[in-house]
Amino acid sequence: MRRVTPHKRSHKFFILLRLFIAVIILFVIAYSALFARMETQGLKVWFFDVGQGDAIFIETPNGQQILVDGGPNNSILQKLSSVMWPWDHTIDAIVVTHPDADHITGLVSVLERYQVKTVYETGVRGGTTMIQAFDRAIVEEQSQNNFVREGQSYNWDGVQVFVRWPTEEAVKIQKDRNNTSIVLELVYGDTSILLTGDAEETIEEEVGFSVGDIDVLKVGHHGSKTSTSVQFLKAISPEVAVIPVGADNSYGHPHPIILERLKQVGASILRTDLDGDILLVSDSENYHVSPAFLPF
Amino acid sequence: MRFSQIVGSPSKSLAVVLTAFCFGILVVSLFPTFQSFFTFPTFLLFLLIFLFIRDKKSRLIFILLASFLFGIFRYQQSEVPSYLTTIADRTGVSVRVQGSVSSEVERRIDSQQIILSKLIVADESVFGKLLVRAPLFPRVSYGDVLTFSCQLEKPEQFNGFSYDRLLASRGILATCSFPQFVFVSLGDSNGFLKTVLSFKESVTGRLRYLFNEPHGSFVSGLLFGGSASLSNDLRDDFSRTGLAHILAASGVNVSLFSIVLLRWLLLSPLGRRKGLIVAGVLLFIYIFAAGATPAVVRAGIMAGLLILQLAIGRQARMVNVLLLALAVMLLFNPRLLLDDIGFQLSFVATSALLFFHPVVEKWLVFIPSAFGLRTVVSSSLVAICFTLPILIWNFGQISLISPLANAITLPFVPFLMAVALIALATSVLFLPLGQIVAVVGVSLSYVVLRLVTIFGSLEFATVSISYSRFVATTIAVLLFIIVFCKRHSFLHETRHTT
């Protein structure tokens, strides 16, 4: 046995101290982006680049976290860990606009890895194996399940949320799952954002008039020709249009016609396939939308 | 070395006999047409002669011939008999397939990779295994029985890499992507492997809870092999930077980690004997925790060799141990030698570490030895140099950034693995403590992954090499010459630890 002299002990202490400092420096480097954004006050909305699908992450002014759709694969998990602290294992709510694979696949893993307090959904189901897996995950999570209908409104920590679709009737008919999509209007001070899921033209026309003028539009159905009609755009006249769409997707989204229509109404366009992850920040008076770098 | 010297020394005789066996397998894998029904009878004949003659020199010659022929026989035996209907015969058309999941399911970011055996195609049972790429859901696990319809395909070479032969060495003769109408039923297999795999699943599950993505996938890839659940972009970056080997279940990472872990253990208050025992026990646990797949068992054997080397101390005897390990692994699957790049990388890296690491470490005295840093750098360097020809041969491209990327990132790897293991262990005792340790790991992992993505995004990261096989051979020959000229200093190196 070696005897530990006081001198040696202090030497060891300094080694440990150096290690500790090294770890803290590494941690700050690793989470520098998150540290930097801690300063930004207000509403933050992330449009994640998860390929051909939707995944939108909302952080309210006081740090409540809401995830709208989960994208077509598990890359949502990487995105979430870039915007959440590593010890944060809870998400306040998830919104399931409609149960198609490109919107719910990632949510299954989110439900498994994170504790989700509330689920907002339409109750629409279908026979796909994906939906069965999603159903099982929802049941196991045992979170509070809210069925969302047109006309309801919520207050998420100062952010007003108006449900613009679906109506009870639309859910009952259920001809096309896309047209049962939850359409949400978020209003925070002077900033208004419209999240449309995969809703198509017929729904847009009904929604458009009740919504009125908005600032930022999440373009419906990944820029497909079936959504984003001219009348709808005229009714809501968005300043910024965000298109969540996968690079080189097999559907040819976004359709050139849609891009042209958006230009016609004077909206500036941001696309996840070209711009990567996109961040909207609003301090209730002004808002700013721009591509924001996420490491993974 | 003269022939009489070999005859006189049992340990040298053993070495040449084992070499003859491996050489037999090598020859027949290079010339697959070299076939005859007489291999086995001839082998028996030589064996008989060996048993009944007295002259020592002739005895050695006959046992050498016998073991050479046995190598050839073993390889021929591993070939699929032509009279059997295999799954490869049913490719090209859409058919109804049933099979049971025969190994761990690889969960990728957007799909699952499933290997099926006990195949029944259109109500007829066929030989061989099938690799299926299926959607993420329904989730499939080991032992399940799947029924679906699919257009089967024959695996093919791509970019000069013999993917088909790699799959064939694992018994996989056909592939199927995104089958339709998948019906999953629980199988009745309730065996040993099922238990091991569900244990592994719980371990990786905990890792994924402690380390958020992509760090959870990265760390579990480092510990247990497999880069499956990383995003495609990250996987590309890993191969562009020549770092994919740390995630392959090739054993390179296991060997690297064990050599560093050993150094730590031996310098710890445990002392040499106990340190070696602890390392051995940890390795044993590791093999089962990692799912005890053939690749993991092989990696474990290689790492075991490193422990054994320290226990024995003499390099010369390690040649025999290494040859014996090689012969045993080839006895189980003779196709590994030329067809399984993971095996090649692992074997070459471990051999290089065994013989050259102690010397190279002495050359690098200018690197501080604190926290085993010198060991990490020197062992990474050795592994990189010796695996380079294999990588060039197989992939026809060289990562220019690879030496730099390896030298900078590899030293983090053993620390990250150690932190991950500590986080796992502490989280079992007290979850919040595990989470605190995991934050350290996440930070380390972040730095490594960021380096990989930065290096990978460089334009000039990889260059395709024309005459790649020629270049690979030249490098291999150069390495061989260096080793040959310096063999005395390598072989007589004894390891003095502490």
Give your account of this protein's structure.
The complex is a heterodimer of chains A (296) and B (498). Chain A is α/β, with parallel strands linked by helices and 296 residues long. In chain A, 35% of the residues lie in helices and 25% in strands. Chain A has ten helices and 15 strands. Chain A has helices at residues 6-30, 32-38, 75-83, 101-113, 129-141, 168-173, 201-211, 230-236, 256-264, 272-275, and strands at 43-47, 56-59, 65-68, 90-95, 115-121, 144-147, 153-156, 159-165, 183-188, 191-195, 216-218, 240-243, 268-271, 278-282, 287-291. Chain A has an eight-stranded mixed beta sheet, covered by helices on one side. A seven-stranded mixed beta sheet of chain A has the order 7-8-9-10-11-12-13. The longest helix of chain A has 25 residues, at 6-30. Chain A is globular and about 80 Å long. The mean pLDDT of chain A is 90. With 498 residues, chain B is an alpha+beta fold. Chain B has helices spanning 3-8, 10-30, 39-52, 56-77, 163-169, 192-210, 215-224, 232-240, 252-267, 272-289, 294-312, 315-332, 336-339, 341-363, 373-395, 402-409, 412-429, 431-456, 468-485, 487-491, and strands spanning 94-101, 106-107, 112-121, 124-125, 129-134, 145-151, 172-177, 180-185, 397-399, 462-464. In chain B, strands 1, 2, 3, 4, 5, 6, 7 and 8 form an eight-stranded mixed beta sheet that branches. Chain B has a two-stranded antiparallel ribbon with strand order 9-10. The model of chain B is unreliable at 494-498 (pLDDT under 50). The A-B interface holds A 23, 26-27, 29-31, 51, 72-75, 77-78, 80-81, 84, 86-87, 89, 101, 105, 108, 113, 129-130, 132-134, 295-296 and B 109-110, 135-139, 182, 208-209, 211-215, 229, 231, 234, 435, 438-440, 442-444, 446-447, 449-450, 453.
